[in-house]
Every structure is written in C-alpha cells, then in structure tokens.
Specification:
Blueprint: H1 2-12, H2 15-31, H3 35-38, H4 40-47, H5 59-70, H6 77-86, H7 90-114, E1 117-119, E2 122-124, H8 127-135, H9 138-172, H10 176-191, H11 194-223, H12 228-239, H13 250-265, H14 272-276, H15 284-313, E3 317-325, E4 328-334, H16 343-351, H17 358-389, H18 396-414, H19 418-441, H20 443-458, H21 477-483
Antiparallel strand pairs: 1-2, 3-4
Helix pairs in contact: 1-19, 2-7, 2-13, 2-19, 4-15, 5-11, 5-15, 5-17, 6-13, 7-12, 7-13, 7-15, 7-20, 8-9, 9-10, 9-17, 9-18, 9-19, 10-17, 10-18, 11-15, 11-17, 15-16, 16-17, 17-18
C-alpha cells in the first residue's frame, strides 16, 4: 500500500505541479500588475482593519488562522531538508516562490470571499464553494470537498501529533501517550468552542510563536554578524551555480527550494481560502491582500529565520548526488556528522549560542507550530463538511468530525503514521491540482474585484463590494452583508 501511494505521490507532486505553481504565480503577478509590491503598505494597514462580528472573524484573526496552517513543521524541518538536498541556494528559490505565490494567494482568497455563504450563522467558503458557484461544476466541487475532509480531517492530523509527541519525548522524556492525551484535551477545549474560540486561540498563539522564533533567530544571526555578508553571497551564488563548492546541486537548489516553498506557504494549494472566507469585511479584496501578506510572513520571515540560523552557524550538510554510490551521497560540507536531516540542524544552530537549549526550544516550537496546524486542519475539514451538509442545517456532523479527529490525534501520537502522511500528501496534492485549475478558470471575478477596490480607494472611499456592479453573479451573500449592520 505504501509503495502504491508513493507511486501516486510521485505523479501528483511531480515537476508538473511545481511548474504549474510557479507559472500560475508569475501569470497572476503580471495580471495583477504585481500587487504584492504595489500594495504592501495597504496589506499592512488591512492587517488591523475591521472587527469580528456574530457571523465572521476579523481580518487579523483570519490571518492568524491561516498562518496556523501555513507555519508548521515545514518551517523548521522543511528548510533544513531544502538546504541539505538543494544547497544554500534553495533559500533564494524559496523566496522566489513566496514572491510569486503571494499573487496566487490573493486570487484564491478573494474568490473565497466573493462566493462565501452563511451556514448555521457563520461565514463559510473555500474552493468547493467557488467551484460550484463560480464555475457551476457541482461534481468537481463535491470531489474537492470529500478529498479535503479525508485529507485534513483524518490523515494529516495524526502525523502532526506524532511529530509533537516524539519531539517532546526526545527533549523532556515525556511518554507519547501523555502528550497525545494532553493534545486531545486541548484540541477538544478549542474546537468545541466553535470558530470564534479557534480564532481567539490562534490570534494570540500564532504571533507569539512566530515572533519568539524570529527573535531567537535574530540573536543567533547577530552573534555571528561577521558571517552575514558571506552567507547572503553564498545563497545567491549557490542559487545561480556560481559557487564552485555547491555547483553540483544547482538543479536541486531550484527543485528543493520551489518544492519546500510551495509546501510551506501553501499558496495555490486551496487550504488558506477556507479560512479567508471567514473574515467579516466590506470588500473581498481586503482579505485577498491580507492573505497575500501571510505568504511573506511564512516564508520571508519564519523560513528565512530557520535558514539564516542554520547557514550562519554552519550547522548543516549538503549532499552531492553526483558522487552517489550504492545509494549514498558524499557530503559537500561537514558542519554536522551523522545527524539526520531535519530539526536537529536548527537545534545544533541554537546550541552554538544557547548551549543545551536547542533541543528544548525546538521541541516547544514544534509543539506550537504543529498543534496550530492541527487546529487549521480541523477548520478546513469542518468547512468542507459544512459544504457537503449545508442543506441539512444540523451540527451533528461537526461533532462527529471533532470526535474522529480526537481519536486520530491520540492514535497518531503513539503510533508511527508513515502511510497516513503519504496519503495525506496525496490528498493535499490533489487539492492543489484541483484548486489551481479552478482559479485559472475563475480568475475574472477576483481581478474585477481588485480593480473595483482600487477605483473606490482612489475616490477616497472605504470600499464596499456590490457584485452586480462589476458583473459578478451568484455572490448573493454580499447583498445581505452590505444592507445590514453586520459588516
């Protein structure tokens, strides 16, 4: 079964998906006239604009919820893997993916806002909703929703729980079942409180974990400030095959940088739009710009923090595939010996400045990063359950999902979840293919919304969205929103 799923994943996560993500990002960057540069100031202003209502969360809460999904173990282990197999130049290509992906994130988040609905008193939206309402292809939407529920609700949470339990056991010698039980209790306390409690939890925890991690990274960088210029030069030289020592991994720098960049910031994968739709705002473009900025936070800030820590302290190995014999590859750089690629790179980098502290801090960081990702998975699964059951007006399906995920978390904490991870990757990969095809076919409403927003801003207005005025149909919720006081 693992071999079969592995073969499927090799097709789903092939260079075709990488090319599609990069090409889509470049295409939308051109179509939006590089909004990721033009509207940076507006993105920052909108982060703190608006308040939560009875039906939706604030823009900042939606940002925090989406970052809970974007910022995960990939920001620690994923960056280390990219450097190990792609060399220092992989960092440059991660930045490139973030820059281009910001435009893709804008399109999918704006579409999620345009075609959102209200179910059981709360805003719901995402790819399944805009595929049905915008494209009018219901079977496609149902297929996406089913894949999302199975992937985000059943397979992926257990893997994250396993990462948390193992890292806590390694650092603090706490039994995995105890960590699993603690996660189940905390998870239940949060998700049984509804979307508002999820939003409040992520609103406080996500900024805390991200800022704390970046501050420690800055301390390590400043402690080695004399190496900074050399590291930056190494990244760019390695990225373009101008560094002799890492020339053998030039092609891998692009491959791994792009692959880990896409995996980390999730732009185009169809996960973040579920959360973007929950924001209570007056114009879809507002949340589109906020979600665009979240890609920068994930990759340019958090991933860069990990990368600079590892590179500036020299605590990494890079493999040279051209010397592979019998499945083994030669180390191009011996910063670490006999250390598995992953969190240990970051732990050893921290230990150079904070001796003995690395394993403890990384374990704590992994707990917050992975647990908030589980919370984001729940919301994604719940939103697709809402889509599939929205005509039934019954919360019983949500309770079933909560219980199933609690069992999955406990099982994942005490068992290896290799197959679940592979199947989860398969589901996320399918979501990415489905979603990118959908937003390429359905781009016009988002582009029109952007032009409408810019026009109203030039007129000195706080933009209000009236879909009929820009030729957008099947966005009936906006007539209700802008006629009521629930804005």
């Amino acid at each position: 079964m693992e071999d079969f799923v592995g073969i499927l994943n090799s097709f789903i996560w092939s260079n075709g998906l990488i090319a599609l993500c990069l090409g889509t990002g470049l295409y939308f960057s051109i179509r939006t006239r590089f909004l990721q540069l033009r509207h940076i100031k507006e993105m920052w202003r909108l982060l703190f604009d608006g308040e939560s209502t009875d039906s939706g969360v604030s823009s900042f809460q939606a940002l925090a919820m989406s970052l809970a999904g974007r910022v995960g173990t990939g920001n620690i282990a994923g960056v280390a893997t990219a450097i190990a197999f792609g060399g220092p130049g992989a960092m440059f290509w991660m930045w490139t993916v973030a820059f281009l992906g910001a435009s893709t994130a804008f399109i999918e988040a704006t579409l999620a806002q345009i075609y959102k609905e209200k179910h059981l008193g709360e805003f719901r939206g995402g790819p399944a909703f805009y595929i049905e309402r915008g494209l009018g292809v219901k079977w496609f939407a149902v297929l996406f929703a089913v894949v999302s529920v199975v992937s985000a609700g059943v397979f992926l949470p257990g893997v994250q729980a396993n990462s948390v339990a193992e890292s806590v056991q390694n650092a603090f010698q706490v039994e995995t079942w105890m960590s699993g039980l603690a996660m189940v209790v905390l998870f239940g306390t949060i998700v049984f409180g509804g979307v508002k409690r999820i939003a409040r939890f992520t609103e406080y925890v996500v900024p805390f974990m991200a800022i704390g991690y970046i501050v420690l990274a800055l301390i390590i960088v400043f402690a080695n400030i004399d190496q900074l210029a050399g590291v930056i030069s190494l990244i760019f030289k390695s990225a373009f095959n101008m560094e002799a020592g890492f020339g053998a991994v030039f092609g891998l720098a692009i491959q791994w940088g792009v692959k880990r960049g896409i995996y980390s910031n999730e732009a185009g994968q169809g996960t973040a739009p579920h959360i973007a739709a929950a924001a209570a705002i007056t114009h879809p473009t507002k949340q589109g710009l906020v979600q665009s900025f979240s890609v920068y936070i994930d990759t340019l800030f958090v991933c860069s923090a990990t990368g600079f820590m590892i590179l500036i302290t020299g605590m990494y190995n890079v493999y040279n595939p051209s010397f592979a014999t019998g499945g083994a590859s030669e180390f191009l750089y011996h910063g670490l010996n006999n250390i598995a690629v992953g969190p240990a790179y970051t732990q050893n980098a921290m230990d150079t400045v904070f001796p003995g502290f690395g394993s403890y801090f990384v374990a704590i960081a992994l707990f917050f990063f992975a647990f908030t990702t589980i919370i984001a998975y729940y919301y994604i699964a719940e939103t697709n359950v809402s889509y599939l059951t929205r005509k039934m007006e019954s919360p019983v399906f949500y309770y079933v999902l909560k219980v199933v995920m609690m069992l999955v978390i406990m099982y994942g904490a005490v068992n290896q979840a290799t197959l679940a991870w592979a199947i989860g990757d398969l589901g996320v990969g399918l979501m990415a293919w489905f979603n990118i095809v959908a937003i390429l076919l359905l781009q016009k409403p988002a582009l029109r919304a952007l032009l409408d927003y810019e026009k109203q801003k030039k007129e000195g207005k706080d933009p209000v969205f009236v879909p009929e005025e820009i030729g957008v149909t099947n966005a009936h919720i906006w007539n209700t929103i802008n006629k009521s006081t629930d804005k």
